[in-house]
Fold these 2 entries.
Entry 1:
Amino acid sequence: MKWGIVDDRNKEHLTNLLKWLVYEVKSACGDGDAIWYSKFYDINDIFPLVEELNKEVKWNSDLVKMPCGREYIYWGANQEDIIITNDTRLWINRPSWQQCSIQY
């Protein structure tokens, strides 16, 4: 079951999580990677928050829809990347070298 981003408290909470992910990835000084497996919020609801925050961060962002049906948000630049997904297979098969993996 996915929750909607129904009020400003949800939006603020998720924006803070996104800001923390950006900070964590940037703290690796050019080689940071993170994945957020969102069990509760649909990536289609999260993407507008990424786009809003990206006005400050200025990374590449895209809502990727693969031919196999998998979907994820790619957000990053150079060798700093954040993947946000609802896809259990992408979560299970994530690279072991990612410095941050969140399931929420």
Entry 2:
Amino acid sequence: MRTTQKDIRQVEKIINREHEKRSLRPIVIQWAYGQPRAYTLMNESGAVRDLSPRLPTGELYRWLCAYLTGLRA
């Protein structure tokens, strides 16, 4: 089964709920060059901190699921 942007957005929402519980900055998913990456905004000026490398959509989905598992552990 193919992973879609909708699948990625669902995991993003779940992670952001977990981040909110822990007073962490929300993550943002951005697509460029045909591949998504996850990052957090560091301040109002737009500085970002990468959480993941750019990966194919299916690989980022698995990466985000592993991140979520670690966050909950």
